[in-house]
Amino acid sequence: MMATRRIITLPPTLTGADAEAFARDGLKRGADVIEVRTDLHAPGDIDPDALARVMPLLVSERGKPLPAPWIQAAWRVDRDVERAQDMDAPPGKLLASHHAEGPLTTAEALRRWSRPIPPDALVKHVEPMDGPAHLDVLLETQAQLSQRFGSERVTVLGMGPVAIPARAVLSRRNGLEYVAMGGPWTAAPGQRLLDDVVREHRKVKDPHALRLGILGTSIPHSRSPRIHRQPFDRIDLAEDAPVEAVVDALLPHYAGFAVTSPFKMRLAKHSGSALEAINTLVRRGTRWESFNTDTEGARAVLERLGAKDVAVLGDGGSTQALRLVAAEQGLALRVVRRAEIQTPLTGDWVWTWPDRVAPPENLRFHGARVAVIAYGAPGRRVAAEIVRRGGTPLLLGAAWFVAQARRQRQLWETAT
To answer: Is residue 273 part of a domain?
Structure first.
């Protein structure tokens, strides 16, 4: 695997001492370079020399000219290969870049790079993706640019709502990796999290290892990337994303996926499963085989709950697993949909709604135990909501997660 430099971009809200604190935090967490862009910061917002003392400084010209002190302090100077008059930069500092306005064929991309580039310059090509299958085009563009300029100099990036897994695949042959520190702000759509990238680079020794990943919506707190073998990618997609096309495009590059809300039912149908919902995909040559290891999690939760009669709030993919296990164990399981809620609710319950889904306003509990199968920060938010509405939450998300993840790991080891 190539040694890549991990680049974090200074958010526009941070200036002065706050900018330097951000850089120090990034360095501590494994970043190699901090980028400052002229469309995000004015010349007086930062002390370039102070930032450069923390870690190498990349200064990028975006619309407004680069201040001379920024250039003097910089490790590299990013100028657009088409827009800059002479790509002016001190010797050894040029990062020649091109940010295409739309998706390109490889031939079109290569034409953008027909201009002579200094032999000591780095090369960065960025373009938006028009769909998951555009990864194949970007891989070919990366290969051709590497042949022209040398693989150690080239970086190719995709952008857009389905770009995260593409960036993960491209990263193995890129010299630079632009990553997000986390939180609400990101410098470009499709950036991977710094912590995930650092974890991969520390643990993966085989440059040809097939990737694993988790597919879902609003999954920044997922623990899957921290417990499964690397490389394991956090692929956060919008609810209406073409997840079926995503998994098909990634088949040559991934051994399997964990599938979470809201894609469990869609991918069950897409993979031809006899189950209504699945949470695991395993590569079998040229196709995906699907499984639902949530049944292991459901079994653990129902055993911990220890009730003979259980009601479930919500009817998504997790509920399908609860139904299967309850039928095996002879438990009475009642599924209550939002429109059917009559409060106050009593007895034993399982809350399956994701924390991003607002519960009905009229929902109230009275002496009810409510199992929470979310974990981490989302689980704590759900628990607080249950308490607010008069219930007693049982935080069983970790039990569910560990049980189903153990089975997933076994299945992924059989991938072909």
So the answer is: yes
- Is residue 144 in a domain? yes
Q: Are residues 317 and 268 in the same domain?
A: no
Shared domain check, 179 and 51: yes
Which of 195, 216, 237 terminates a domain? The answer is 195
pLDDT at 2 over 70: no
Same domain, 71 and 176: yes
Instruction: State the residue range of the domain holding 250.
Output: 204-291
| Token pair for 246 | 């995503």
Look at the block and give the residue holding tokens 């295409």.
Answer: 100
Residues 131-182: tens digit of each pLDDT: 999 999 999 999 999 999 999 999 999 999 999 999 999 999 999 999 999 9
The phi and psi torsions of 195 (rounded to 5 degrees) equal: -60, -40
pLDDT of residue 270: 96
Cβ–Cβ under 8 Å, residues 407 and 296: yes
**Do 85 and 157 belong to one domain?**
yes
- The reply to whether 130 and 82 lie within a common domain is yes
Q: How many CA atoms lie within 13 A of 64 on its CB side?
A: 12
Note the pLDDT of residue 395.
Answer: 96
DSSP code at position 257: E
pTM for the whole structure: 0.84
Cβ-contact 93, 78 below 8 angstroms: no
Judgement on whether residues 284 and 336 belong to the same structural domain of the protein: no
3-class secondary-structure state, position 396: coil
| Greatest CA separation for the chain | 76
Sorting pLDDT into bands at 50, 70 and 90, what band is 84?
low
Residue 1 has pLDDT above 50, yes or no: no
User: CA 37 to CA 333: how far, in whole Å?
Assistant: 56
Q: Spell out the residues 6+ positions from residue 89 whose beta carbon is closer than 8 angstroms to its own.
A: 71, 76, 77, 79, 95, 121
